[in-house]
C-alpha cells in the first residue's frame, strides 16, 4: 500500500529544513508544492491508517503545521526570490483546492486543520507592515490563499480592504485577489467589498488596470445566492454605464461565471446576453457575449427550458454561414448542441463576428 501524505510528512519536513539551511532554499520550497497539493486532496487520515504506518493520532497534523510554519518563517526572513517561491507553492495549492476527489475531504489549509493559524498570519503580517510595496503585495496574496482560516481575523480583513485604495497598483491588485478569495466564503466581507468595487469602477481617479482587476472579482461573489444576486445586479449597472470595451469584456465574463451559481440567474443572464447582442457593439464585445452564451450553455444544457427566446434554425446552422464557416464557428460542439444554442440567438449578424 502506498504511504499516505501523513506517513510521508516527517520525511518532507526534514527535507524542507535541510533545503532551507542549504544554499538552494528556493528549490526545497518549490518541491513542497506537489506535496501540499496531494495532501489537500487526500482524506484526513483516521486512526486505522495512522496505525498502519506507525503514526499516533495527531502526528500528521503536527508535521503539517510544522511545514506550514517553516514556509511562513522562510517568507518572513527571506529575500524576494524566496518569498515568490513560497507564494507560488500556496497559489498552486489553492488552484486545485476545489478539485478534490471526495467532497468530504478538507484541504490542508482549512481552518479545521491549521492549529497554529494565528502564528502563520502574524509572520506574514510582519512582512506587510515592514516590507516594501512588492513585499506587501506578496503578503496580500498569501492572505488570499489562506482565506479559509484568515477570513475571521479582523486585522487581516482591515489590511485587505484598506489596501484596495492603495496608490500602488501592485498592492491594489494583490488586495483585489485576496478580497476575491474572502468573498467566496464570507457574506459580510463580500457585501463590504461589493460596495467598494462599485465606487472604484465609477471613480475617474482609479486607473484602468485596477478597474479591470476589480471587474474580475465579480466572478467571486458566490458565498450565497443573495450576495450573488446583488453582485449580479450591480454588475449589470456597471455594464450599462460603461463604454470601455476592455471593461465590458471582463464584466461579461465575470457575470457569466457568477451566474452559474443558480439556474435562475443563469437563464436571466442568457436572456440579457441575447438582448445585449442587439445593441451597437464592437466585434470584440459581440464575440465575448457569444462566448459567454457558449460557456453557460455547456455548463447547463437545460437552459433551453428557462430562457425566453424563440429563434430557430431548421437545419441547425447559423444563418448566412457556409458549411466550412459553420464548422469553424461551432468548434467542438455537436450539431444537437448547436440547434439548442441557435434557439437562444436572435441576431444573425452577431453570429458572423466570431468566424
UniProtKB/TrEMBL annotation:
Identification of the protein by name: Integrator complex subunit 7
Domain Integrator complex subunit 7 N-terminal: start-end pairs: 63-302
Gene Ontology cellular component annotations, sorted alphabetically: integrator complex
Family the UniProt entry places it in: Belongs to the Integrator subunit 7 family.
Pfam families assigned to the protein according to its UniProt record, in alphabetical order: INTS7_N
A GO BP entry: snRNA processing
InterPro entries the UniProt entry points to: ARM-type_fold, INTS7, INTS7_N
Amino acid at each position: 500500500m502506498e504511504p499516505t501524505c501523513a506517513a510521508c510528512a516527517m520525511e518532507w519536513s526534514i527535507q524542507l529544513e535541510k533545503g532551507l539551511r542549504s544554499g538552494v532554499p528556493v528549490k526545497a520550497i518549490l518541491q513542497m508544492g506537489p506535496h501540499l497539493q496531494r495532501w489537500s486532496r487526500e482524506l484526513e487520515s483516521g486512526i486505522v491508517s495512522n496505525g498502519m504506518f506507525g503514526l499516533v493520532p495527531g502526528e500528521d497534523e503536527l508535521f503539517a503545521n510544522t511545514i506550514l510554519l517553516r514556509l511562513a518563517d522562510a517568507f518572513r526572513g527571506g529575500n524576494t526570490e524566496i518569498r515568490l517561491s513560497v507564494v507560488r507553492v500556496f497559489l498552486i495549492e489553492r488552484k486545485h483546492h476545489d478539485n478534490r476527489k471526495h467532497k468530504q475531504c478538507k484541504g490542508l489549509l482549512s481552518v479545521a486543520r491549521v492549529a497554529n493559524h494565528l502564528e502563520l498570519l502574524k509572520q506574514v503580517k510582519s512582512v506587510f507592515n515592514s516590507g516594501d510595496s512588492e513585499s506587501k503585495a506578496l503578503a496580500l496574496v498569501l492572505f488570499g490563499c489562506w482565506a479559509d482560516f484568515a477570513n475571521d481575523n479582523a486585522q487581516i480583513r482591515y489590511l485587505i480592504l484598506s489596501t484596495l485604495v492603495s496608490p500602488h497598483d501592485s498592492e491594489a491588485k494583490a488586495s483585489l485577489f485576496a478580497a476575491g478569495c474572502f468573498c467566496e466564503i464570507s457574506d459580510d466581507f463580500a457585501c463590504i467589498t461589493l460596495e467598494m468595487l462599485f465606487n472604484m469602477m465609477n471613480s475617474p481617479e482609479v486607473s484602468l488596470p485596477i478597474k479591470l482587476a476589480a471587474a474580475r472579482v465579480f466572478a467571486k461573489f458566490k458565498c450565497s445566492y443573495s450576495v450573488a444576486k446583488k453582485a449580479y445586479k450591480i454588475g449589470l449597472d456597471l455594464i450599462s454605464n460603461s463604454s470601455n470595451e476592455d471593461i465590458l469584456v471582463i464584466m461579461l465574463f465575470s457575470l457569466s461565471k457568477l451566474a452559474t451559481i443558480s439556474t435562475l440567474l443563469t437563464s436571466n443572464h442568457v436572456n440579457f446576453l441575447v438582448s445585449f447582442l442587439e445593441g451597437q457593439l464592437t466585434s470584440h464585445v459581440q464575440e465575448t457575449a457569444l462566448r459567454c452564451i457558449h460557456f453557460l450553455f455547456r455548463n447547463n444544457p437545460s437552459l433551453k427550458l428557462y430562457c425566453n427566446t424563440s429563434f430557430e434554425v431548421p437545419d441547425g446552422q447559423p444563418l448566412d454561414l457556409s458549411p466550412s464557416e459553420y464548422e469553424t464557428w461551432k468548434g467542438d460542439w455537436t450539431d444537437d448542441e448547436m440547434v439548442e444554442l441557435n434557439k437562444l440567438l436572435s441576431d444573425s449578424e452577431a453570429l458572423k463576428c466570431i468566424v
